[in-house]
């Protein structure tokens, strides 16, 4: 009989210790060591190898047929559809729409004749049914199982042999052999490992749903990324309707693709042409607004950023940023102060990106800077102008990738003037109908913008 022993595991970094400690010796997190019971017989390996190596030329070629999900945007992100036998992790904040998306996909697969199984460990069957009615995803071939015991789920999958399975969510399931509570790092790893074995052994596509937890990534999807084939994150601001589905790992495709979706009253719909969605309405021009030529995945996307710089009634001025990184905005404010003499030290600063989007690429720097300056000056940027460029600490404007694609998209959306980093003059694209203003520094850009 296997001997059981207890071990304390840090829920943040996975470090083990035979005795309890208040603080993890590795990652120094307080209160993260949780007791878990281990069967000492579990990890034993058999000493005799049962498989022989095979010459690489004798391995059958990958003839796996991709399975289409019915959402072309998602298929693109997956690298051309789902690969049977793969495990896909779908992570995101609670309430962002993971269950809704997955239900829509399953319904499409079921309608296309696949045998699909939705395992819900969080919601009741009734709730699932109600959601399916709402998004019009009812289908006879869509089977639902409300179960939290992973061993039972495994047995049912083996018996039922579906083509596609969803485990919603990996944190709500528990494995009876693991002594810790559901959602702990050992539990989620064991379940993900079990899912991988099931998928590979039976050619079943398995989707794992994982919540990104508030405290960074404790026992969240991040700890599972290395186990699965594909990792998708569902991003967005739940107070806005737009969602971005992003591949951060993909063994069967590129990680450059994103899908843009919109949450409506009847579930998620795909946005194939985001033209103008994130631009100022009616071409309105106001102080504090700039149009950034961004790139999301491989797709150019024009987005309005807004800034408000105002007198503060408080002794400590505020810096409130949504849709960008606070540290990036602080850096830009410091550069504006030092290099362009624009002081905001005693003023409140608010920054917002349209539609709940996140502008994380450095190419958005110049847009943020000009929006801030525009608010300080109380003066709108010259009409029909878009900008891009990374800002360095010396106030220089650095080149960005895919400049021509950005400019072409701006032209397509009716903008006529772009402020871009001055790279080698012969590398600068010429785009008919577009006035291109190359700038070397933030000061240049300010001059060009007003
Ligand atoms: P859900 O898929 O349950 O999120 P998750 O599984 O990621 O936790 O979606 C939750 C939100 O989506 C909820 O606030 C309601 C909203 N919603 C819609 O706006 N339209 C819809 O058709 C559906 C099904 C949900
Ligand atoms: Mg859910």
Concise overview:
The chain has helices spanning 72-77, 98-111, 125-135, 150-160, 185-202, 326-340, 365-377, 403-412, 442-449, and strands at 4-10, 16-17, 33-39, 87-92, 116-120, 142-146, 164-168, 205-211, 230-236, 242-250, 258-264, 267-270, 289-296, 299-311, 319-322, 347-353, 385-387, 390-391, 397-398, 417-421, 435-439. It is an alpha/beta fold and 450 residues long.
Question: Could you walk me through the main structural features you see in this protein, from its secondary elements to its overall organization?
Answer:
The protein has 450 residues and is of the alpha/beta class. It is 24% helix and 27% strand. The protein folds into 3 domains: 4-39; 66-270, P-loop containing nucleotide triphosphate hydrolases (Rossmann fold, 3-Layer(aba) Sandwich); 289-449, Ribosomal Protein S5, domain 2. It has helices spanning 72-77, 98-111, 125-135, 150-160, 185-202, 326-340, 365-377, 403-412, 442-449; strands spanning 4-10, 16-17, 33-39, 87-92, 116-120, 142-146, 164-168, 205-211, 230-236, 242-250, 258-264, 267-270, 289-296, 299-311, 319-322, 347-353, 385-387, 390-391, 397-398, 417-421, 435-439. The strands form 5 sheets. Strands 6-5-7-8-4-9-10-11-12 form a 9-stranded mixed beta sheet. Strands 13-14-16-15 form a 4-stranded mixed beta sheet. Helix 2 (98-111) crosses helix 3, helix 6 (326-340) packs across helix 7 and helix 7 crosses helix 9 (442-449). The longest helix has 18 residues, at 185-202. The chain is globular. Bound molecules: thymidine-5'-diphosphate and magnesium ion (MG). Residues 98-99, 122, 168 line the site of magnesium ion (MG).
